[in-house]
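Dear colleague,

Following up on Tuesday's group meeting, I ran the structure prediction for the two-component complex that the binding team flagged. I've pasted the input sequences exactly as they went in, so you can double-check that nothing got truncated or mislabelled along the way. The structure tokens for the whole assembly follow below. Feel free to forward this to whoever is handling the docking comparison.

Inputs:
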Amino acid sequence: MSGAHHGDHVHTHDHAHDPLHAAEPRPEYARLERAVRELLIAKGVFTAEDIRKQIELMDSRSPAMGARIVARAWVDPDYKRRLLADAKAAAGELGVDTSNTATVVALENTPARHHMVVCTLCSCYPKAILGVPPAWYKSSAYRARAVKEPRKVLAEFGTVLPDGVEIRVVDSTADMRYLVVPMRPSGTEGWSEERLAGLVGRDSMIGTALAAAP
Amino acid sequence: MGGVEPFASQAIDRTEHELSAFDKRVDAMVNLLSHPSRALMRVDEMRDAIEAMPPAEYDAAAYYEKWIHAIAEVMVHKDVIGEEELVLKLAELKEAEE
């Protein structure tokens, strides 16, 4: 949430971590979910089947889709140009449905520049391409620190970059999300796209990690 | 949230979590309501409702608990769901549990 909001009542935050995820919601929230869902279904806003299909779609999305996009960009310079120009359209070429998503911008890491993505405002993430974000991406600690001490945060993720590498931290919004295109590891010359995709982990497309070494 | 204390001094918990069935239903509802074919809720409206939560409840609520709170607020605010209707429904559900 916004800094101003927290600035108003920061004193209430005395717990060590956000209660981001629980195995079960508290009873009043479980009831609220059921009440809202049943009322909206009764009113014809959506159907139970719509919810089932939407969950199916969510479950079908994973970082593997992003990895395919990155691997294609590594082997096909024309595709990479299209990806950097219009990531949604380029994702669409590989069958990723991005119709109900905000603008996605692909950012290419180079030997001179590394990108790292955060959403300081809330938790915006290119879900259509990478699936649901990891819990740490949504945590207050990551959101507060990524923009303040990116090198230290990267080091905690096991990513130590040479001092000469510029780090650009990009802040997502509801209308613009980012996909990092990590550098292709050396020693992968002649590899197939499929094999290359196996080196592209979720965190390398958020920018907290590099693509895996072969 | 950028640089805001005390969060800027906290360790990042990198534990991976699977979404629960509740989490997934709430996420699905947000997607369905924000879909252009319905256009009943925008991300900024949702965030506004979350940020307006009383601080203590904001702190206590899990991620998707905040989301369902926001859906309810926005739906009532837009009169898609009547406030009384929601109160009644919640009471019914509570009674059925007891």
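Chain B has five helices and no strands.

Cheers,
M.
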